[in-house]
Amino acid sequence: MEHFDVIIVGAGISGIGAAYHLQQHCRDRSYAILEGRADIGGTWDLFRYPGIRSDSDMYTLGYAFRPWTEAKAIADGPAILKYVKETAAHYAIDRHIRFRHHVKTASWSTETATWTVTATGASGEEVRFSCNFLFMCSGYYNYAKGHAPDFAGSEDFAGQIVHPQFWPEDLDYAGKRVVVIGSGATAVTLVPEMAKQAAHVTMLQRSPTYVVSRPAEDRFANWLRRHLPGKIAYDIVRWRNVLFGIYFFNRARKQPAKVKERLIGMVRDELGPDYDVETHFTPRYNPWDQRLCLVPDSDLFASLREGKSSVVTGQIDRFVPEGIALASGETVPADIIVTATGLELQLLSDVAFSVDGRTVDLAHSYNYKGMMFSDVPNLASAFGYTNASWTLKADLTALYVCRLLNAMKKRGMRQATPRVAEGEIEPVPFLDFSSGYVRRAIDKFPKQGNRKPWKLNQNYARDLMALKFGSVDREMEFSNPVPKERRAA
Fold first, then answer.
1. Minimum mean pLDDT among 143-147, 150-154, 339-343, 401-405: which range?
2. CATH number for position 187
3. H helices then E strands: how many in the chain?
């Protein structure tokens, strides 16, 4: 059984970032990355649907340590995948990856101060590893299964039904009528892209989402790159975008009516006074109760203005041979139906965890600083922000893990376990979000508390201070000293 100081699970954007920080800040630690798929990239390798792109700007989705240098700030999937792969190759991280290793179980032993990790190997065989610290960077949703509601009559539909998570490479939609079910980030990406070739694309939504346009290219960032060293220009734009995001989120929470009015007004400006914005682009919830949908260069609105696509808001009754019958009695014709109905959330890839022979249900734990779990030693996970770029938090989490590892080594301790201090702590849902994919799975996730360090900030500036410079001792138990004979060695 191979042993490593640290095992990282997942070779996506979080896992590659975690490996970089380990190499920089814990140079004497050995590590391996176990990746269930056959290539680097995670989300950006999995999703192949037309127009796949980021819904965060690349100055915050990119790594703090490796500047994004392309002209487009809102980048497409292939460009992001290239960036992640080049990062892994540049820092020789790719040499540490074991592909087609799907982790199934992880068992902690206090006696040996190690995790034993069991995975399914490339040929389907069982493979075992041990490590002192386990870092889960496997994302938050099920790669093998997307959320797919059971639509009545789906077997009657005469055309093809496609889920964006499993896009057929040979799908021919040129000149065909397409219906995209959904109103989230995937739907607003697919509609204008497919409309370039399809006869017509209809976005069929149960209820509207806030949709905001931003330029695909950041002219200020591109200007700065021409006049300043690349890293300095990158850091300036990164912080500008971070601070603007914090400002906008806080304003949305404090003045939701004003922000809502402004967002809806921007849509009216795009679509004109005769468009029914009230029905199709006015959500029933406040801004940032769910994630906003970003569209680059108004591409969705342009497609609607040109008549290449349209939005229908209503309840689906059933699928029929010629399309989708709505509860209103209307039928939306379709040759192809795309079910952009969301993700199926999954906590730490559904790995079965145990501590000293006792099965651990992380849903019954408290989440510590957004990354660790009460009473579970030497385990961390990368989980990004709901109101900002994923990578911002993933970078800070990796930095904190390195600080924790170095503190353990300096103190001669093999174990770090978050413990809820004596006194009351009130459980709060892990994610303060009303999106359907969150509501469907929230019971599977740990709780956060109503006070620090068990309460999430959802604020990069605060987390930067807390995780990069704050104490590692607050409600963290260091224990299990290194045996004397090993210290002497």
1. 143-147
2. 3.50.50.60
3. 14, 25
